[in-house]
Amino acid sequence: MTTNVNLSRWTRFKQSDFLYHFRRDKVAMFSFAVFVALLAAALLSPIIAPHNPYDLATIDILDSELPPSWQDMGDERFLLGTDVQGRDILSTILYGSRVSLMIGLGAVALQLLIGIIVGLSAGYFGGRIDNLLMRFADVQLSFSTMMVAIIVSAVFQATLGADFYAEYAVLMLVVIIGLAEWPQYARTIRATVLAEKKKEYVEAARVMGFKSMRIMFRHILPNCLSPILVISTVQVANAIMSEAALSFLGLGMPVDKPSLGSLISMGFSYIFSGSWWITAFPGMYLVILVLVINLLGDWLRDVFNPKLYKG
Questions:
Q1: Residue 155 domain-assigned?
Q2: With 70 as the cut, is the pLDDT of residue 91 above it?
Q3: pTM of the model
């Protein structure tokens, strides 16, 4: 019975408009393929990376600032060269991208959790609850995301100490970026709930005596998934960029725990001395990663909005 249900779901998915439009859009297919490849490389970095940047026994300071292997003075052991600590750039990019993706996805999960609770409550109950929650969101939106993230990060470091912050830097950045950008979800979900709660299925659920929490999470929330999915792709890219910016400013990942942002920050001071590869390759990787995520987000937005989609 379960096999038949799964088979019918797979059959419906293959015949869905979503997959039909995806197959017709070459940009979306290419972006998805690149993103899957980058994600797989990040997850498999301990296996496919030539070196382990966390293993100090394999790092030699005499190998520092070696250029890419195809240039003069390059070493074939280090395809993209080495950084100032003698770590292989390719390996640090693979390990660093895993950290950046972990922070990006974790921060979006926290944003989603807060945004769903606030957006559903504001849209469903309305009145004073709506005014209070939305005014709080408006106040936070009046500040830039980076300003909020910098303030929260500075408070965390001053309160918990630099050593504690460095040890739990990934968790701290997830919380910081998550707290900085949840209003985007709250406002989007609230707008959808305001439209959904006037429909007949919500009225029927109320007449049947269902509690508000069940109506909100079991009936209304599933109908909000389209805008949530669209905004999530954009927010993952924004979260990765926020982590890179905070690390570049010295408020993110420590230098000994590579992320794309900390790699760019570390190599920036050496770019004018000729060691351009320390910053250039992590920077290009970051641009490609964010670009393909944004392209997928734009495609999802168009597909879920028939008035915009022309594919």
A1: yes
A2: yes
A3: 0.80
